[in-house]
Design goal:
Helix content is about 45%, strand content about 20%. It is an alpha+beta fold. Strands 2, 3, 4, 5 and 6 form a five-stranded antiparallel β-sheet that branches. Strands 1-7 form a two-stranded parallel sheet. Strand 3 and strand 4 form a beta hairpin.
Length: about 325
């Protein structure tokens, strides 16, 4: 195979939108409320069940008088009103009190994921064993300490939350710019990709996905059902190979290889998200492969800056929820 000629096209007509957002006090307070909800606990509620409660139930379902797979459970917990159960099931549980039982009909949707029961009529017996209501932690010194503010000072807590939010906003803005800049490069640089490079990258992506899933607890014998063959990752591999060739060419022709100071800045930026930044910086510099990842990130950052200097870039106001809610 012949190594392709990489010739980046003219980027002058390419348009890139730079998200624009100033973090406000309201954004900080909204984030604090999210942090409170993450630390929410459930306490027994001496009243009938309503939306937002966590219910503990026993249930048993029958179709034509016969039990079916997945149709029964004991001490099963679910949040009421969040769509975790079928509407008829939640409707039956709503308003029940602990210790109460009832029977009700339920028709499974025609497109229900359980093919064996899809479209069928069932009869359920439901016993409500417990009703718990959500309780947010009070916004006090103990809450501040839980967020890492040793003296429990609420003003300092808000200051640290703001700093974290601003850092995350900056990170997400940069991620969006990077995504657009790399796409501009791909669109402007048609390539005949070497088949061997794409196959090798596909194989690596497949192996990495399998390793990651096993690290998350999946058993090796479960992997074949997920179709993690290299062919599944072919499109991603093509993109990665193309970007690798383009970035390598730009690093050479435009002198974009990162300087040590730029790599150090990237390492320090990453370390700021940890409790002991200085120790994290040392950790990165202890092993060459860790530092190579940061060198790659710094090179990509330089390429993005180069693209932004060539393309048409315009600011676009973006809402806090829209930016922070994006994956």
């Amino acid at each position: 195979e012949i190594y392709p000629e990489v010739k980046v096209g003219d980027l002058a007509a390419s348009a890139i939108e730079r998200p624009k957002l100033e973090v406000t006090d309201a954004d900080v307070e909204k984030t604090i409320q999210i942090l409170r909800k993450q630390r929410m606990r459930f306490v027994a509620a001496g009243r009938p069940a309503r939306d937002g409660d966590r219910l503990t139930v026993d249930f048993a379902g029958r179709i034509d008088g016969q039990p079916f797979d997945g149709g029964s459970a004991s001490s099963f917990q679910f949040p009421l009103g969040q769509g975790g159960m079928l509407p008829e099931f939640e409707s039956a549980a709503r308003g029940m009190s602990a210790g109460e039982s009832k029977q009700f009909p339920l028709k499974f949707p025609d497109d229900y994921h359980g093919k064996a029961v899809a479209g069928k009529q069932a009869e359920f017996e439901l016993t409500l064993k417990g009703v718990e209501e959500p309780q947010l932690p009070p916004l006090d010194g103990e809450f501040a300490k839980a967020l890492g503010v040793a003296d429990g000072d609420l003003a300092r807590m808000r200051s640290e939350v703001r700093a974290n939010v601003e850092r995350e906003v900056k990170k997400r803005v940069e991620a969006r710019l990077k995504q657009q800049a790399l796409q501009v490069l791909l669109d402007a640089t048609p390539l005949e990709l070497p088949k061997s490079l794409v196959e090798a990258e596909s194989q690596q992506l497949a192996e990495r996905a399998a390793t990651d899933l096993q690290a998350r607890g999946m058993k090796p014998e479960q992997l074949p059902s997920l179709n993690l063959s290299p062919a599944t990752f072919a499109e991603s591999a093509k993109r990665r190979v193309a970007l690798g060739l383009i970035i390598g060419e730009l690093a050479r022709t435009e002198n974009l290889q990162p300087k040590p100071a730029e790599v150090r800045a990237m390492v320090e930026q990453e370390a700021q998200t940890y409790e002991s930044p200085a120790e994290v910086v040392k950790w990165f510099y202890m092993q060459p492969q860790r530092l190579q990842e940061m060198e790659g990130a710094a090179l990509e950052a330089n390429v993005v800056k180069w693209v932004l200097s060539k393309a048409k870039v315009g600011d676009k106001d973006v809402a806090f929820d829209e930016l922070m809610g994006a994956s």
